[in-house]
Amino acid sequence: VEWGGAAGEMGHRGGIRVLCVDRPGLLANITKTCTDSEINITRAEVVQLEDQKAECTMQVQVHDVSELTRLIRRIAKIKGVISVDRITFG
User: Fold this and answer.
1) Are the C-beta atoms of residues 61 and 40 closer than 8 Å to each other?
2) What is the pTM of this model?
3) Cα–Cα distances in Å, from 71 out to 7, 24, 27, 49, 52?
4) Residue 29 belongs to what H/E stretch?
5) How far apart are alpha carbons 13 and 17 in whole angstroms?
6) In the prediction, which pLDDT does 29 show?
């Protein structure tokens, strides 16, 4: 999570990586979880991997680290999600 930022910037940027089953609608489930949590996605990339898996990396805007942790827990409960980790965008 980047805690520095321009004056007046709302929230903080945090990064997450989701390893999941590559199936139709899973990205929609992940983004809906962010929407339901009132968390804005500012950057996203999905890459198809071997063995019918996919990796989704997202940068999100959160108020604090506890909000990011709650989002990670919610995403981890989605059917087809294998793992969710915090990452840093460079």
Assistant:
1) yes
2) 0.86
3) 25, 21, 15, 24, 24
4) helix 26-36
5) 14
6) 97
